[in-house]
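Reviewer has doubts. Consider these tokens.
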Amino acid sequence: MKSIKIYDSIVQQSSYKPYFNLLSVIIYPILEEISFRLPLTNFNVRNFKISFSVFSGLLISFLLVDSLWWPSTNFAFFLIEIFYILVLSCIVFILLNYKRDAFVNLKKRWNQKPNIIFYSSATLFAFMHIFNLDLDIYDVIFLPLILLPFFIFGISFGYVRIRLGLTYSILLHMIINGLVLGLRELG
């Protein structure tokens, strides 16, 4: 429990704000777009492995946040946060390389149901943002309404990914996050 207190105290410090902004506007949009939008076109084993690995790295690092070691300096904290995500992603990627046969059936089903894949990706994207929210038990009833903007963003980023490419969905995601942080600073 000590590390979660350290994590929370560092994130709340105003001297951590530039690192938090860099994570929120640059790093996380890249990682999230790779996680949720990279495999939205016709099934490609390499893209799926990369996407699943980065998603797993993000999820595991968020779930294990109070079990991990966190440094007390802001810059080191920023680097360690990225390091954990990348190391966990690499471990998952290596493990996926041992399961080559598992992707044959997935490819067939993936290409048959593109709408299900698309909306599932947007839904998962919305649910992953629960980690960003400070929710009480009383907020659970409003969870669909709270997550609706994230779902709409997931659909929008997915549409841009399919029509224009991954680079444009990353840029749109960066712009949206930058606007949200900028508006938060004004308020």
Q: What stands out?
A: The mean pLDDT is 88. The helical segments are 2-12, 17-36, 45-63, 74-96, 103-112, 114-128, 143-164, 166-186.
